[in-house]
Amino acid sequence: xxxxxxxxxxxxxxxxxxxxxxxxxxxxxxxxxxxxxxxxxxxxxxxxxxxxxxxxxxxxxxxxxxxxxxxxxxxxxxxxxxxxxxxxxxxxxxxxxxxxxxxxxxxxxxxxxxxxxxxxxxxxxxxxxxxxxxxxxxxxxxxxxxxxxxxxxxxxxxxxxxxxxxxxxxxxxxxxxxxxxxxxxxxxxxxxxxxxxxxxxxxxxxxxxxxxxxxxxxxxxxxxxxxxxxxxxxxxxxxxxxxxxxxxxxxxxxxxxxxxxxxxxxxxxxxxxxxxxxxxxxxxxxxxxxxxxxxxxxxxxxxxxxxxxxx
Length: 311
Known about the structure:
Elements lengths: L2 E5 L3 H10 L4 E6 L6 E5 L5 E5 L1 E4 H7 L6 E4 L6 H8 L9 E3 L6 H8 L4 E6 L2 E4 L4 E6 L3 E4 L6 H13 L4 E3 L3 H22 L9 H21 L9 H15 L6 H7 L6 H4 L1 H9 L5 H21 L1
Parallel strand pairs: 1-2, 1-6, 2-5, 3-10, 6-7, 7-8, 11-12
Antiparallel strand pairs: 3-4, 8-11, 9-10
Helix pairs in contact: 6-7, 6-8, 6-9, 6-12, 7-8
Family: Belongs to the ketopantoate reductase family.
EC number: 1.1.1.169
Pathway: Cofactor biosynthesis; (R)-pantothenate biosynthesis; (R)-pantoate from 3-methyl-2-oxobutanoate: step 2/2
């Protein structure tokens, strides 16, 4: 059986572990110990229990288990490089990495730094944790996988087939960069605003927030055009990007976005991975980005306030 190491036992990491466990050797790796007996609640409400091989990073380093065929990094974007560094000494430099981060921050950095293959995955699968032993698969979605340098199409296809067989519908694509930027555009229009206002996604369509969504999308659409990224629909320009955002808002109306979950849990948010690439691109291309900069500043103020209070 193929071995998959999953570095980061958050919601996506545990969903991936449960999905792969019946057909592969899975090792779930985190910074602190977790019970091996884990429960998955499916979108249909069925509860499935799996005994997963859970290790801490320290245990992994000392145990030196069998080599993995894939190492999936499912941490937050801001932690991805440090997470890889924590196990780099015990994995072969030829092992393929699979990056599951939001935004477009860790992916190009790790792709450039890692000598072996680096695949990037973007998914709309919905999941959230229920403590140390449970994860809820809140909604089925689509996953796309590929590499930024167009060098590993065969490996991407093999992984896509494995994930699809595991119940996570996955397609290998040659334009993963575009897919990552498209998701980044939607995340930038939704996540910061729901995090700042403490609302669920669907509430953004209310009059109190809709205008601000439109101003964010206007700046984001200009950046997408400068980067050569088209919306994943037939339309073009501001209107197409705005229609896409409203579609996601409607489809995920009851969802509590990951950035809002971070704020409520008093954790650092992924603003650096979601907003900074857009701001830096706008500055490179000489485009206005005052709205995006204001969002970033507001989030930084909010983060600093609660992180300082929790120390």
